[in-house]
Amino acid sequence: MAKLNLYVVRHGQTYFNIFNKLQGWSNSPLTQKGIDGAKETAAKLADTKFADAYCSDTTRAMDTANIILAANTVSAVDHPTTSPFFREEFYGYYEGNDMNQTWYVAGAPHGVPMFKDIQSTYSIGKAKDFLKEADPFHLAENNDDYWKRIDQGFELIRNNSQLKDGDNVLLISHGNTLLSLMERYGEGKYDLSTRPANGSLTKLELDGNRVKVISYNQK
């Protein structure tokens, strides 16, 4: 397996973002601010040579990826590889629901009525477990469900035989996924009380099965 530099960008702002709605496997379009923000990120990455690009199969991620790749002046990659492995957490019954209301339903029975309370008292992983418990259909992903899927995404990148040591790879990701990655791999070095900004850049190093955080939530 090659040692890779992974440039992880959160998708541009969407309408569900400004409406404060949970947006996992559901989707809403990029706002004009989201498009402009993606273009700003694209300008910063225009001279970074990418050997490949990946994103979830949601339009907010694909649109962000295409904006970045269209502005890139040095890469041969013109479109991303899409996969459901890279989707945001699945919120089940609560897809599209108000974020604060949903986390109250999930956390209040455990004495933690807000997402930040669940995170600080337990963990982001435990928030996933609480939400699956609260889902009347029990379709929301718990922590184990979530990582089994996300890990398949990382394997998809690692098993790309065209990639070689030192290659740069673009990955368009999502807010809770970035928080989850930092909780799992950030070694407690990063402030996760604030969500990563739309269009922000996080850099990871993939070396075999090892994931190392280089930087997080760069504007």
From TrEMBL:
Keyword terms: Hydrolase
TM region positions: none
The keyword Hydrolase is assigned to this record: yes
GO CC term (a single one): cytosol
Keyword Hydrolase in record: yes
Residues that, per the record, bind substrate: 10-17, 60, 88-91
GO molecular function (one): fructose-2,6-bisphosphate 2-phosphatase activity
InterPro entries cross-referenced by the UniProt entry: His_Pase_superF_clade-1, His_PPase_superfam, Phosphoglycerate_Mutase
PANTHER family listed in its UniProt record: FRUCTOSE-2,6-BISPHOSPHATASE TIGAR
Name recorded for this polypeptide: Phosphoglycerate mutase
Origin species: Secundilactobacillus malefermentans
